[in-house]
Amino acid sequence: MKIITIKAASAAEKSVVRCRKKVMEKALPAALNGYRGALIFTDTNVYGLYGKKLARYLPGVPVFAMPAGEKNKNAETLFSLLGAMAEAGLHRDSVLVALGGGVVGDVGGLAAALYMRGIACIQVPTTLLAQVDSSVGGKTAIDFRGVKNLVGAFRQPALVLADPAFFGTLPRREICCGLGEIVKHGALSAPLFERLVSAPDLFDLGFLAGIVPENIAFKADVVRRDPHETGLRKCLNLGHTTGHAIELCTDLSHGECVLIGLIFEAELAKKYAVCDGAYLDELIALCKRVLSCDLRSVDVSAAAELARLDKKNETNGRVVVCAPRARASYALLTLGYGEYAHALAEIKEKLC
Ligand SMILES: NC(=O)c1ccc[n+]([C@@H]2O[C@H](COP(=O)([O-])OP(=O)(O)OC[C@H]3O[C@@H](n4cnc5c(N)ncnc54)[C@H](O)[C@@H]3O)[C@@H](O)[C@H]2O)c1
Ligand SMILES: [Zn+2]
Fold first, then answer.
1. Are residues 187 and 142 in the same domain?
2. What is the pTM of this model?
């Protein structure tokens, strides 16, 4: 077992992350003992897979399941959940358990932050992405008026219980999605990078179980040092400027787009920054080992336009990119829109 403590902005907002086996059977029932009432929040897919276990190991604890999928990460789901929390009679000293992927974690975390001005939340992340990324760090949100994560709050969960047994039911594409964020962490942490490049099979479930704690510790350390994303935490946006823009104009998953974003931004660093070209080639090869999609399908001119329109990375017609530069090192590149669009087209030509 590994316990990682994240100390957030206020001393009261501490979060404990435990990597454990048999979470449903032991750790979760034990954790609920300390609270005066609980509600389990999950989605329909996870409930279909793990509902029987819930009934067996947590008999009598009410369950509320949202329809699965990002399109339901919205105000309607949030308010239905708040209604279920009220109906279950949750008090200030009760707990909400968010059992699922990043969607359940984000909506559940926000509902727990709002209900009675904030009750405890235990995150039980069931996807690889949720274990290494979304459940750690205290960012909660729903999508609103067509804008992703527009309404949310920073609030650390009381406890995160990460169990690799959940990976056994994950489709390969969801593993790929989590690996996108893991490779991104690897681009920021030299020891993790070494483990990734020397792994014979990145999709091996035993290997993944072994690297989850290291990924959580890495993200937790960045969050501890910058809980409200005023500086250092922005490094976690590596590959994401181009990745997010590609995500908006394809049906590829977030993790696949992060990997493509890392490839394009590594090439941008070769062109515009002082960098270690041999290392960047190694990073690109690592991304390609995980990706199964064809880079030829990426519409780079649409992506460049979407990056320009994204207020998060646009300053006066210029696009800001957080690009990998050398081992565990990144560069903030500020490029004119035309220059960025032209470079993406050139890179695609070179890669395909
Ligand atoms: N809060 C943060 O810091 C943060 C960081 C990164 C991503 N996110 C958010 O996370 C979300 C993406 O998370 P995700 O990739 O986990 O998506 P998700 O929650 O939609 O889960 C992906 C799919 O896998 C299913 N699933 C979950 N666990 C399963 C299991 N063990 N076996 C089989 N199927 C399972 C889900 O029902 C869903 O269909 C996005 O909304 C994103 O904005 C948040
Ligand atoms: Zn991401």
1. no
2. 0.94
